[in-house]
Design a protein that fits this description.
Helices cover about 85% and strands about 0% of the residues. The model has no long low-confidence stretch (mean pLDDT about 90).
Length: about 80
């Protein structure tokens, strides 16, 4: 999880810094924008990672419940 947090922060820093530079801001403003982008990217990536893990866990639980229900259901005999 730490890697996702750091990667999201780095991506946010680069993206916001590049956008600020392309907008023609001076160095101080660019660094401020990049720092805010770093924070936003890190928080957003952490939230997305938590949602992804929650979906994987729910999917595995659903699959396990389906397998358990299928194992207890009697198979109908056909002629």
């Amino acid at each position: 999880m730490r890697f996702v947090f750091l990667a999201g922060g780095f991506a946010g820093f680069l993206l916001a810094g590049a956008c600020s530079l392309s907008a023609g801001h001076d160095g101080n403003r660019t660094f401020l924008d990049a720092a805010v982008g770093c924070l936003a990217g890190a928080v957003l990536s952490r939230w997305l990672w938590a949602r992804l893990l929650q979906g994987v866990i729910e999917s595995r639980m659903h699959r396990a419940h389906s397998a358990a229900a299928a194992a207890t259901t009697p198979i109908a005999k056909t002629k």
